[in-house]
Amino acid sequence: MIPITKVDVSDSEDLVIEVLRSGNLAQGPMVARLEKEFAEAIHVRNCVAVNNGTTALMAALEVCDLKPGDEVITSPFTFVATLNAAVKAGAIVRFADISEKDFNISADSIAKLINDRTAVLMPVHLYGQCADMDEILPLATNNNLALIEDAAQAHGAKIGNRFAGTFGTGCFSLYATKNITSAEGGLITTNDDGLAERLRVLRNQGMRDRYQYEMVGNNYRLTDIHAAIAIPQVSKIQEIASKRQKNAQYLSKHLSSCKFISTPAQVEGRTHVWHQYTIVLNNDSPVDRDEFILRMKGAGVFCGAYYPRLVFDYSCFLDHPNVITEDLPVARHISSNCVSLPVHQYLSTSELDKIIESTFTVLC
Ligand SMILES: *Cc1c(COP(=O)(O)O)cnc(C)c1O
To answer: Which residue's C-alpha comes closest to atom 7 of ligand 1?
Structure first.
């Protein structure tokens, strides 16, 4: 069977053992080292590590000091953590439609939703490709809105020379399936030193000096054990991305002739890090998405639907007073027909060939 993700952190053994032997298990020097190395890797002034990607988003929203009724605009096509964080922050959440070219919210659809109550734009760099930040950043600046990037899947992604997570407040996940992992973990990035300082205090119970509380805080701390797992991968961000890029290119070269699917594109000027390689089944496909996934599994290839429904399409959100839904035709079509194929850095050429052959066998 070809898995959709594979984890190999054998490089981390020495550092993890160093932490265990040191007896300093909680947030300490390894967390500081991870923050420094990640900040250098993506050319950002500050990086604040937290215990997962969801709390990264929550902390980034908390320091926006939202007032009741303030609105966040985000993507309807994302992992539920994006929405959970915004609802937990007390925001009213609105959804912009996505673009078929990159699966991310478009500036046009965001612009239509901006009103007097809008406080935050929260684009998601889905699958490892940046949203259209050339257009979204000016929307945030001109309307005086906070910009929080859900970069959970986009370690090392770029537009031109500018990395994901450096346009606004970047929120990365280090969950086990992400391109870089610490099992569980998160990183918040910002070029705003004051904001970084507030995030550091917030993460540690609102405490700067011992028992001196400055704000209502939380415990969002990462452990040194987890930081040690991630550190060796940070220096390999480019290497991991380039292997995934090669795999994606190979898949697209062979799959683009299959008339029942659309293959994913890397938009001109952007560096895609291929957290997922996602095809979309066309309307005339002989099998539907569930059947496709089932038959691929039968052929030995695990595929996934990321994500099978719009993020709010569950009664806990549909019935929630803070969640405002609308007609989102592009996102709805894509969420009903998307399938992600394995693209991870450990695939061999024969495995890539097997993924391609199986796709043709199932569809043709
Ligand atoms: C993984 C993910 C998150 C949440 O990160 P965790 O570390 O699992 O809490 C948020 N947003 C997106 C788009 C993700 O893929």
So the answer is: 53
